[in-house]
Amino acid sequence: MSESTIPQSRPWQQPFWKPAPGGAKVLLYLVLIHLLAITGLILFPLPSLKVLGASLLIMALGGLGTTVIYHRVLAHKTLKINPLIEQLLIFFAVFNGSGHPVSWVAYHRHHHAHADGPEDISSPKHGGFWWAHLRWLYQSAPADRQRWCPELNRGAYKIWDYAETPTILLSLFCGPLLGFSWQGFFWMGAMRLVYSLHMQCFVNSLTHLGRAADGDTSQNVWWLGPLQIGAWGENWHKNHHTYAASARLGLRWWQPDVGWYFIWTLETLGLASGVKRPRLQ
Ligand SMILES: [Zn+2]
Ligand SMILES: [Zn+2]
């Protein structure tokens, strides 16, 4: 599969079921986890406390991996973190369905570079809600990793070229593998992955439905915060587009940001350094 920096022209005009070259496996994965999640919801509408607790814990660790490591450490370089903690949290982010860290960063830098323009890879302004929410995941051309994040072209990150698929398979089957029954299979596997997926997708869709006079569509969505276990603090997306160089997304004391509390704790323990704080206007 060749990676291109040239965006397809108006890819959202394709029929929704037609994947871009290389996108078929993503579409298959999305269909599969949704079918399994619906089946699980019918068979086991209420999980046991143990199964629910285990699902939430895995999701919470994956959420920290995505927002702290993928977004704040790797994509925006707003802090440096202990490499062991970084690798561990990358594992949980991949386990939680957030994808390859290098692809994530390439797509994300592409998004910031073209935010709200026709080349924005996940803009609801141009492609509509469902394009921004899910369709771009399998219908857009891959972002060029070498162009957008050449510094990540090294072993610690490239290892996920090989480890991503086995990790996702482990993730799907983690319930039974950890000794839980069928209920664990559905809730800790596909149902957790579907929930995490949509909580992260809302950052591309819902938090870009604003209408500022200058054309900026990013907005803070306060009520998404408590639901967003798969992407802690990412609901303060207007803050983020305004202060992209800040490691902190919830800028006011009344804007909870679990990712920031985690970073602050690591910094206090000497496990994070160079933490960039916002200079509020
Ligand atoms: Zn960002
Ligand atoms: Zn954005």
Question: What does the model show?
Answer:
- The protein is globular, with a radius of gyration of 18 Å.
- About 55% of the residues lie in helices and about 0% in strands.
- Helix 2 (about 50-75) crosses helix 3, helix 2 runs parallel beside helix 11 (about 180-205) and helix 2 packs across helix 14 (about 260-270).
- The protein is an all-alpha fold and about 280 residues long.
- It has one domain (about 25-275).
- The protein is built from 14 helices and two strands; from the N terminus they run H-H-E-H-H-H-H-H-H-H-H-H-H-H-H-E.
- Residues about 1-5 have low confidence and may be disordered.
Question: How is the biggest beta sheet arranged?
Answer: 2 strands, antiparallel
Major sheet: order of its strands?
1-2
How much is the radius of gyration in Å? 18 Å
Count of β-strands: 2
* DSSP strand content: under 5%
Shape: globular
Which regions have little confidence, pLDDT < 50, spanning 5+ residues? 1-6
The overall number of domains is 1
Write the layout of secondary structure elements.
Elements: H1 24-43, H2 49-75, E1 80-81, H3 83-95, H4 101-113, H5 124-127, H6 129-139, H7 145-148, H8 155-158, H9 160-172, H10 174-177, H11 182-204, H12 224-227, H13 237-242, H14 258-268, E2 272-273
Antiparallel strand pairs: 1-2
Helix pairs in contact: 1-11, 2-3, 2-4, 2-11, 2-14
The protein binds zinc ion (2 copies).
At a glance:
The chain is mainly alpha-helical and 281 residues long. It has helices spanning 24-43, 49-75, 83-95, 101-113, 124-127, 129-139, 145-148, 155-158, 160-172, 174-177, 182-204, 224-227, 237-242, 258-268, and strands spanning 80-81, 272-273.
